[in-house]
Amino acid sequence: MTKNPLDANPFTLEFHPSPQPPKSTILELPIPQPQGAKTMPIRVTVWNENRHEQKNPKVAEIYPQGIHGALKGALEGQGFEVKTATLDQPEHGLGGNVLEQTDVLIWWGHLAHGEVSDETVAKVQARVLAGMGLVVLHSGHFSKIFKALMGTTCDLKWREADDKERLLVVAPGHPIVEGIGEYLELEREEMYGEPFDIPAPEELIFVSWFTGGEIFRSGATYTRGRGKIFYFRPGHETYPTYHYAEVQKVIGNGVRWAAPLASADPRVFGNAVALEGK
């Protein structure tokens, strides 16, 4: 039997709790709910260009249900409510009330950034500013919506040469890397290299090293208005990156982090009445 270390202590410990004021004098405030602790699951829409899967047999073999399908299955396994949208659907799959019923939008695009309508970009941007989370993956760095929100070219160096990628965690303890060790390692990936023309991240989560010697800011967060944005680099279409459990976990963590708080109050703008009398 394990002995209580206090049993051998010759001193008697007596605890005297501080007197509490009468209940009527205590100001009781609602306790904010932790992020992602909604009674309903976080609603995720995975947007994928879905062109490589139709044009390249190698990509179709790796992702028979599309990149969006692979991500949908992975995120549903983490308890999210997930729907998908693709470029060639009417209004790119984001019409009607889709965005209004989305807590976090995931974006993957590559071949056809220019085919996304400016109207759709404006609608997505407005929703982000109002509080919808946005997770931008891999070549989505060049998407219209990411460039609009960053205000820069978002250009970078790149190479397709089967480089090994090691993603070093530089923000240990951040919610996005919960359950992740000191690094992730991908045996084959497309190389992205600095300079990466983005604003200085509010939080830098990952820095990647490649076998060619390059480094890259591969996990970065921002806020725009009330919306949270997470950029995560891995995910070239000819590699099975989104089938790796640790990559799926990072994306799921990113969704939870980016989800709007259930208790967030609407912002009020415009002419205002003075709070204090004149």
Write a short abstract of this structure.
The protein is an alpha/beta fold and 278 residues long. The protein contains six helices and nine strands, in the order βαααββαβαβββββα.
List keywords for this structure.
278 residues, 9-stranded mixed beta sheet, 9 strands, alpha/beta, disordered N terminus, Rossmann fold
Secondary structure topology:
Blueprint: E1 43-48, H1 52-55, H2 57-62, H3 66-76, E2 81-86, E3 104-108, H4 118-130, E4 133-137, H5 144-150, E5 157-169, E6 183-193, E7 203-210, E8 215-224, E9 227-232, H6 245-258
Parallel strand pairs: 1-2, 1-3, 3-4, 4-9
Antiparallel strand pairs: 5-6, 5-7, 7-8, 8-9
Helix pairs in contact: 4-5
Notes on the protein architecture:
With 278 residues, the chain is of the alpha/beta class. It has a domain at 43-154 and 218-258: Rossmann fold (3-Layer(aba) Sandwich), CATH 3.40.50. The protein contains 6 helices and 9 strands, in the order E-H-H-H-E-E-H-E-H-E-E-E-E-E-H. A 9-stranded mixed sheet has the order 2-1-3-4-9-8-7-5-6. Strand 3 (104-108), helix 4 and strand 4 (133-137) form a beta-alpha-beta unit. Helix 4 crosses helix 5 (144-150). The radius of gyration is 23 Å and the shape is globular. Mean pLDDT is 89; it is low at 1-33.
